[in-house]
Description:
Elements: E1 7-13, H1 17-31, E2 40-46, H2 53-64, E3 71-76, H3 82-91, E4 98-101, E5 106-108, H4 112-122, E6 128-130, H5 148-156, E7 162-165, H6 166-169, H7 181-193, E8 195-197, E9 204-206, H8 213-217, H9 231-243, H10 249-272, H11 276-287, H12 292-305, H13 312-324
Helix pairs in contact: 1-2, 5-7, 5-10, 9-10, 10-11, 10-12, 12-13
Amino acid sequence: MNQKIQLSIAIPVYNGEKNLKKQFNRIFNECDNVKFKNFLEIVISDNCSSDGTKKIVEYNKARSLKNKNLSIRYFRNNKNLGYFKNFINLVKLPNGKYVLFLSDDDLPGYGFYKKIYDFIKSKNSNTMLIAPIINSNKYYQSLFGINIVSYIINRGSILSGIILNSQISKKYKSYSKSLYPQTELYLDYYLNYGMIDLDINTKIRNIDTKKKISEKINSNDRMQRKSDFALLGKTKIIEKFYKKKKINFFEYFYSIYSVYKVGLNIKMILHKNHHYELEKNFYNKIINVKKKNLIKFIIFLVFLRKIFSKDREFYLKTFNESLVN
């Protein structure tokens, strides 16, 4: 293992040719200089892409040899293992002391890597670092700091911008199968080592912001979220940590509440875009769960929160639908 490397940028990829071009250009523009020599490596786990991902990586590997300031390591699965297994494989690969996870379609802003460089150089703890993304505030409301578990679960579902000690992250083994293995890893890591929100003025933004919710649920979705939009994967993780007594009841309840609040927003978007069949299938899937009464109560609380909003009729109808489900 190369002990000189301080930071690994770990990117899981599937058919990410277009996005990887932008990722590599941003990294090379900021980091291909003597300052970053032996500091940074890029690690890519390709889930058997059928596009030009491999060619893009090979081109940039050759590009990295020019100044020899950056290291690029590329691993390709012989078949598509699904996001879950590809991510778990990726966790094992970094050689850096720290690992920054990054989706191929989440692009850091200008100056991001220079800020991370300065922070890593001055850092001497295992605390999880969370870099800001566009609209970070929608994932976090302070509530006197007692809803951080909910924050980790919802912000953590966005893979990008989380920095961990790579040797510690490699030790986590007991993943529950879901489309959010990173969320489970981040939550376990936070509970053991804490977290810090990085106060930097450059943010990560999603390149595919124009992609509609309906496109993320259908069969062409790269993540294969299916009819529940992978929402139940989050609740599965919350249940697991609560049963193991790693989080208390308030943390459990508020986390479930926050996940379903997002879920009802997805339902509303589908409704407003006239995707009624998708909306129906989605809602039936997330409402017909074991703790149905708890979910009904949470939906009622969301309705109360929205009772003076312009969407109150939608939320009232949604609550009534939960009563007859």
